[in-house]
Amino acid sequence: MLRISKRVIATMALTVPLAFGVAWSANAAEKFKLGMAVGGNTCCDWMKAQGDVARALAEKNGWDYIELSNNNDPAIALKNARIFAQEGVNAMIQFNGQPASNPAISQAMNAAKIPVVTYDIADPGMYFVGIDNLAAGVAGGEQLGKVIKEKWACNPDLVVSAEGAAAGIVNEWRTGGMRTGLKKICPDIPAEKWVSFESQGDAAVGLPAARDLLAAHPDAKKMAVVGLNDGGVLSLINAAEQLGRADEVIGWGQDGAFITGDNVNPHLAGSVFYFLEGYAVYAIRDVIAPIAAGNIPPLKAAADNPASRVEPCPVSAEQAKAVPAMAERVAKLLEAPAGTTAYSLFCPNK
Amino acid sequence: MRLQGWGTGLTLLAVWLLLIAATGLYRPDFLSHQTVLAVSFTMSIVGVMAIGQGLVAISGGFLDLSQPAALIASSLVAVRLSEAGLPFAVVILGAVLTGMAWGFANAVIIVGAKLNPVIVTLATNFIGLAALYFAFQLAEVPLGSAIHQFGRAKLFGLPAIWWPMLALVLVVGFLIPRTRYGRRAIAVGGNRMAARARGISLKATRFAIFTAAGGFVGFAGVLFCATSGPFNPSSANALQLNVIAGVILAGISLSGGRGNFWLLLLSVGFLSTIPTALVFFGLSSDTQSIFQGLILISAVAFDGYRARRGTP
């Protein structure tokens, strides 16, 4: 009798936790799991913020959340996608600034039947959520064109493009788009006045090349600057300040990284906000939440027919004073009702 | 001793003048004050970093590969002290001490664990950059602050940041062969066993060299953040190759024991002129990497040739 009791007790001791474990596992298996691969480029604080917002929204929805960093490296981005597949995520969001690995990621995730949302850089196998980079570039160029028309009667000495070749097609869309927008307002600027340099999208890294370009155009005084992002445009502005030629430099950036706060360079006349930190609102509202609810939306992978479109918000430096800095924007975005976008909260030009 | 490396110096000067003359003939507007400013701005930060790198090299430490992370750490301290409204002298002191602390930490690992300095500094650069990424994403000196104005000021027609570089190269170049500290560094780099037999402490010398080298990187951090605008933890990575190339071209032996710091003015000046000249020739300044790579290979080959022949 005593032996039987011992056996019963031993069996129960093993079975009860096992049963709880199985039940817990079943419950956990039912819980929606979201994987997020952040860009991981140290250039930009919005890349980290994109992960912070996605995590907070996933937690609000009661989902499991896994975050990995692509370290701005295409091979790591692919490895991360495979890790997500092994972890059994139900959906994945990524920002992959080095899109060479996107086809391989797309193939791997399609094979695992895991839908992928990609920000800003389209891939045929992924839901596109993001800005229309070309439209954002054109919008910024038009705004700068209006300033140039008013101040210099569309007759600058030089129009400088701060390129960021590593961004590939995005650079062509944004920087080229800005040139297109500027030409719409000022169509008669001669071809020889359009010059460019490689800024690498980084104010500090692009600075020496910007100084060299200015040295090679010593007579240019009235200079309009466009570029991949605010950082690239700032590299030319800073170079002009150092060479004593900043009096008549007017820049208009993209991404809004350096147009808010109390340290805005007076020669940066404006920028185009994308409110990059808040992209997860679009992705979760229009793609991930429907998937979690079992209503898989049709795949929309093109930038001109996206799963969710982020509106560009061109602002002058004066208007940008009303836009809070990124940390405050993230806090307010997460306090807002579900689905509220940063554009609707903060863009002064809606 | 005093004439050490002047053959290298004359060669460098000739090649530099040839580059200036060729570019000036192709584009006469190359010979302008704007070009001088562009080149001298680029020279300033690389020049000060090259002093630190040169000290490590001449003492037989081969290379300090943690300079980019040390520079950014020092720049970050300078930015934070500026934001706190502290006097410019305190800002400089804070950055220099940060650089020295970095160099001291390198020395602790190298001497304590008896590890190869190149491997250790490569590792501390990785660790440092990762730690810096946790600490900040972007930093910038406050517009209009003393350090911001210093980064844009001119003195006798040249950037204000160029003059400290000149002074430091001249002073270090003067002191290295003429002081006990400098001669010990050269002795340790030239022949470690002989130096030890003469009673020179290798550990103490290595601590002193790495700490001093870190101090120069710390000061370069002041010049960097004064001019760079917004920077991130990776913003100084591109400087590394230029600094190493400058040291090698100046004839400061990577295997230690010989070198003339004054020649850094010529090597760094020449290297800083190349990208500017390329733009005047209509080539993109990012093609400079091709030329720098070729020059670096030539310089290392020449350094090896001199070492084999035993000539300075």
Could you explain how this protein is built, in words?
The complex is a heterodimer of chains A (350) and B (312). Chain A is an alpha/beta fold and 350 residues long. Chain A has twelve helices and 14 strands. In chain A, helix 2 packs parallel to helix 9 and helix 3 runs parallel beside helix 4. With 312 residues, chain B is an all-alpha fold. Chain B has a single domain, classed as ABC transporter involved in vitamin B12 uptake, BtuC (Orthogonal Bundle). Helix content of chain B is 71%, strand content 1%. Chain B contains 13 helices and two strands. The mean pLDDT of chain B is 91. Classes of the chains: A alpha/beta (350), B mainly alpha (312). Chains A and B meet through helix 7 and helix 8 of A and helix 2, helix 10 and helix 12 of B.
CATH architecture of the largest domain in chain A: 3-Layer(aba) Sandwich
Average residue-wise pLDDT of chain B = 91
**Largest inter-chain contact set:** A-B, 36 and 41 residues
Poorly predicted ranges of chain A: none
Helix content bin of chain A: 40-55%
Helix content of chain B: over 70%
- Note the overall shape of chain B: globular
